[in-house]
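Task card 7
Instruction: Convert sequence to C-alpha cells.
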Amino acid sequence: MKTRNIYKPAAFIAVLAVLFLFSGCNEGINENVPDYSGVDFKDPFGKYDPEIEVNMAAVLTDQIRKTALVGDITLEKNVWTDLIKEKLGIKIKYKWIANADEWITKKNDEYNQRLNIAMASGDLPDIMLVNPVQLKKLVDADMVVEMQDYWDEYASPFTSELYKAEGELPFKVMTVKGKLYGIPRLNDSYDGANCLIWYRKDWLEKLNLPEPKNMDELVEVIEAFSTQDPDGNGKRDTYGLGAIKDIVGAMGFNGIFNGYHAYPGIWVEGSTGSLVYGSIQPEVKTALREIRGLYEKGFIDKDFSIKGNDGIAEDISEGKIGMIFGPMSMALYPLQLNILKDAEADWGCMKYVSSDDRPVMVSGKLGTTDGYAVRKGFEYPEVLVKLINIFMEKVYGPDAEFRKYGIGEEQLGNGSRQLTFLLSPVTTYPSGKNMRSYELIKIALQTGDTSEMNSENLGQYDSVLRYMKGIREEWGVAKLFSPDGAYKLLTEIKSNGELLLDKFIGAPTETMAEKMGVLDDMQNEVFTRIIMGDQSLDSFDEFVRNWKMLGGDRITKEVNEWYSQNR
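Output:
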C-alpha cells in the first residue's frame, strides 16, 4: 500500500472511516475466502454477495441502555444492523461488549481492560474503538492497518465533504509516526464542551430569585436551592449543586473552576508562552476553597464521591438536585427524566459566571478524541469506510431518514424518544451541524420557511413544534434548539471565542502514556479529599510537588517539545 501525505485535502477525507477494518495492502481477496470478483470494491456502497461477517467491540453505555434499547432490540439486532445487512451485505457481530456507567465513551475501564487483554493475546476484533494511547501501542506492536488509501478510495463524495470541513486536527489524533492508522470519530468541540449551568428554572421562579450574573449570586442560588425548601415538601432534602465522583468534566465542578479562571485537565499557555498543566496552577486551589465551602455547608450531596451517572440521574429524576454543570446533551438525558416525572419541573440553562470582572473562558478539549482502528489481517478494510458512508447518508444526507435512524418515533418506558443513532456500529458527528440546525429552526419559527432543512433539521424542528403544543416528551430536543435553548448559548460561546481548548492535541508522549493515568487518579483523589475536608486546602501544594516529581515535569518537557514544532 502506498503512503500518502495525510494532511493534503484529499487525504483528510480519508480519515473519516471512523471504524476500522484492515486488511493486507492488496485489494485482492484472500484465497481462503469466497470469490467477490463480482463486487465493485471501489463503490462506496458496494454490497457483498455472499454476505460477510465483521466482528467488532462495543461499549454499552448508560445512555445506550436507557435511550436506545427498547423491547427485544439489541446491539446486534436493530434498524442499523438490518440496514447494513440489507444494503451492504455485512453482518455485524460483537466479539465482546463492555458495560460502562458512562453516557459517552470517554472513560470506560471495562472496555479498556478487555482491549488490553485482546492486545496481549492477539485476539482483536476486526474493528475497534481506540484512543491515541491505545492506537500507539497497537502500531508499535504492528497490529493495525494503515488506513489512508482505503479512505481515499471508498469515502463517498458526501462523506468526504463533511470531513473536509474538519481540517487536519482530528486526523492528528489518529496519526502515529506521520501515518494514519485510525479513522477519527468526529465530535464537535462545542457539542461536547462542559460549558453550561443547568438549573431548576421553576425553583428559581418559586423562590423569586434572579438568574445569577456572577459567582457570588450563583452561590446564593445554590444555598437557596439547598435551604429554602424549593420542592415544597417541608423537608431539607434537596441539594443546590449536583456532582459525581469525577471532579473534572461532565457533572463535575467545571463551572466553579472556570469561574475562578482555573482549567484543570488541559494544557494552557503560561506567562512565558510555554505550555503548563492547568491542574497544578494556583487558581485551582482558589476554586477548591469555594467548592469545599459548599460541601461543608451541606449544599453538595455528602455522598457525591461515590456517585456515578446512574446515581446522579436518579437524584435528578427524583427532584433532589437544583443545579448541575455539564454539556448540552444533558437535556436529552438525564434532565428529561425529571421533566416527565414532575409536570411542574422545568430546567433552564446559562453560561458559566465569573468570580470577578474578567470574562469566563470555558475549558474544553478537541471534540475528536478517539477513532476506529482495524485489525491487521482483516480481509476487507474498505468496510470501515462503507459503514461510515451509510451512517452519514442516513443521518445527515439529503435523503436521510432521521426519524428512523436518528431519533426514532419509538417512545421509551420513561416517555423519552428512542435515540436510534446510538445503535449504529459506527458513529461520527460532524462539527457545526447542530448550530446550523438551531439557526434554521429559529428562521422557520419566525417565517415558516423550511426550504433549507434536511431530514435531521426537519425532525428537530418537528420536536420543537410538538413541545410548543404541550408534548413534554419533546422537551429535551426543544431545549436544545428553541430560540432560548442550549444552542443559543453555544453559538454565543463560539462567536465570542470563549472556549479555551486544550493546546496539546498530539499523540501521547512517552511519559504521558506511562504515567498520566496514575497522575489523573492522584489528582481526583486529592481534590476529592480536599473538598470533603479529609485533607487541608494546603495539601494542594503537596499534590503539585508530587505531580511534578512523579512524572509531571518530564511530561511537561515532552509536551513543550511537541508544542515548539506544532504551535
